[in-house]
C-alpha cells in the first residue's frame, strides 16, 4: 500500500492530500530515510512523522485497504525514544 494511503487509512493523518504534501516536504521518514508518497509500506517499517515541533515514531503492524475507525489504531504501535 502507498505511504500516503496508509497514513490516511490508519488515521495518522486526516486526509490523503495532506499526507502527500508531508511526504513532498520530507516530514516523513521510513526506516531513517525520507520517503515519497508512492513508497510501498510493509509490516515492520518504522515511520517517523514530524508535526511541527512534535515527532511521532511508529512501527507498522498491519496493512489493510479498509479499516473501521475503532480498529485503525491496531495498524501501528507508537514507539518511545
UniProtKB/TrEMBL annotation:
PROSITE patterns, alphabetized: S4
Alphabetical GO biological process terms: rescue of stalled ribosome
Entries under Pfam families matching the protein: S4
Stored InterPro entries: RqcP, S4_RNA-bd, S4_RNA-bd_sf
Keyword terms of this UniProt record: Protein biosynthesis, RNA-binding, rRNA-binding, tRNA-binding
CDD domains according to UniProt: S4
Source taxon at top rank: Bacteria
Function, as annotated: Key component of the ribosome quality control system (RQC), a ribosome-associated complex that mediates the extraction of incompletely synthesized nascent chains from stalled ribosomes and their subsequent degradation. RqcH recruits Ala-charged tRNA, and with RqcP directs the elongation of stalled nascent chains on 50S ribosomal subunits, leading to non-templated C-terminal alanine extensions (Ala tail). The Ala tail promotes nascent chain degradation. RqcP is associated with the translocation-like movement of the peptidyl-tRNA from the A-site into the P-site.
Entry protein name: RQC P-site tRNA stabilizing factor
